[in-house]
């Protein structure tokens, strides 16, 4: 995510300070090494590691920082906006999400199952655009859920360095506890844990959470409304296209959304109706560096990647040059008195 900001900032002619997450600083320090190796002059890219309150907050409010481009949670984004506002400093915000995936009744069940799992469990569910709310047509729900569980059981959960690993640990002990707490709350609110819900039995160390599927969810439950940032999929059924769209848009967030159907006209209608910045048709998560990335509502504003990403670091300057020899003539010239 650091490169999504650093590359366009440097291409636009800015110098940049990259403040990585305190949980993932080393990759950004490696990026700095690569930049040094390819001859980027000293001082052009600077990496400032540290905690949010000690390193991030002072940076966001510093009078010599002209712009803040932030990726993180909506709660932190809101704090950064408040401090940047004191300096009338422009910001762009790539924040959290609770994205829907709608599966219609005309799909190939196995293909749809694989995209549904990939959309939510890829990178262990730690992806802002994870399609973590499944809306499945009621006529195929039972068979589709059966199929999902079968596919889920085949996911290899292991040390990410092991060949064939498809689900690794979440980023920290804190995040691990948070994900299990979400699952426990869902259970206590009356939802059913259809699959997973715990740490895998074969892994005794590491912050592993089983890929988890939760059904019997209502729209007021925490698991439906809040971002988990872990491998947890919650499921609701729908009867009509309108109902599916209403449920999909029933969120404060607006980052991603996916529709799976063999009817491309329907996909087009649903794409237009989604209140989200990034839409996938018959897939979920593929991401291209030429295409604009960003959300609406509490998922943030501004776009990264492609030409839109460059715009984030540019400011248009209007220049007017007076080119005739004639005087302006608005005031009476003293020479004519
Ligand atoms: N929209 C997107 O493109 C996108 C991409 C990736 C992640 N995300 C979101 O990021 C979140 C997960 O990342 P996280 O756990 O690192 O988020 P986070 O908000 O906890 O932390 C993000 C960064 O903000 C810093 N920070 C914390 N408090 C701060 C403060 N008061 N002032 C300035 N900086 C502060 C942290 O040190 C960290 O570097 C999820 O909500 C996810 O959806 C969004
Ligand atoms: N593939 C893009 C992911 C961005 C957010 O986590």
UniProtKB/TrEMBL annotation:
Gene Ontology biological-process entries: cellular detoxification of aldehyde
NAD among keywords: yes
Domain Aldehyde dehydrogenase stretches: 1-319
Catalyzed reactions: 3-aminopropanal + NAD(+) + H2O = beta-alanine + NADH + 2 H(+); 4-aminobutanal + NAD(+) + H2O = 4-aminobutanoate + NADH + 2 H(+)
Keywords tagged on the record: NAD, Oxidoreductase, Sodium
Gene3D superfamilies linked to this entry: Aldehyde Dehydrogenase, Chain A, domain 1, Aldehyde Dehydrogenase, Chain A, domain 2
Keyword Transcription recorded: no
Pfam families, A to Z: Aldedh
Top-level taxonomic group: Eukaryota
Family: Belongs to the aldehyde dehydrogenase family.
Protein name (Swiss-Prot/TrEMBL): aminobutyraldehyde dehydrogenase
């Amino acid at each position: 995510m650091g490169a999504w900001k650093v590359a366009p900032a440097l291409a636009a002619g800015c110098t940049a300070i990259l403040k990585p997450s305190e949980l993932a600083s080393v990759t950004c320090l490696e990026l700095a090494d690569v930049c040094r190796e390819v001859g980027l002059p000293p001082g052009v890219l600077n990496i400032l590691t540290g905690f949010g309150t000690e390193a991030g907050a002072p940076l966001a409010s510093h009078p010599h920082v002209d712009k803040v481009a932030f990726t993180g949670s909506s709660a932190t984004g809101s704090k950064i906006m408040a401090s940047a506002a004191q300096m009338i400093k422009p910001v762009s915000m790539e924040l959290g999400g609770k994205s829907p995936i709608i599966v219609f009744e005309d799909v190939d069940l196995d293909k749809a199952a694989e995209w549904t799992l990939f959309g939510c469990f890829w990178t262990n569910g730690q992806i802002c655009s994870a399609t973590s709310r499944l809306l499945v047509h009621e006529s195929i729900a039972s068979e589709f859920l059966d199929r999902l569980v079968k596919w889920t059981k085949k996911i290899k959960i292991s040390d990410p360095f092991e060949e064939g690993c498809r689900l690794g640990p979440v980023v920290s002990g804190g995040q691990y506890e948070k994900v299990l707490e979400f699952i426990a709350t869902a259970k206590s609110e009356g939802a059913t844990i259809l699959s997973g819900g715990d740490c895998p039995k074969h892994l005794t160390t590491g912050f592993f959470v089983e890929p988890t599927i939760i059904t019997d969810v209502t729209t007021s439950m925490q698991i439906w409304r809040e971002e988990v940032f872990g491998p947890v999929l919650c499921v609701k059924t729908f009867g009509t296209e309108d109902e599916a769209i209403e449920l999909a848009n029933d969120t404060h967030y607006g980052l991603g959304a996916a529709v799976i159907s063999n009817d491309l006209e329907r996909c087009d209608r649903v794409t237009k109706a989604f209140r989200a910045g990034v839409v996938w048709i018959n897939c979920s998560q593929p991401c291209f560096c030429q295409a604009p990335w960003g959300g609406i509502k509490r998922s943030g504003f501004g776009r990264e990647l492609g030409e839109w990403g460059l715009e984030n670091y540019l400011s248009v300057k209007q220049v007017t040059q007076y080119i005739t020899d004639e005087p302006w003539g608005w005031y009476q010239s003293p020479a004519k008195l």
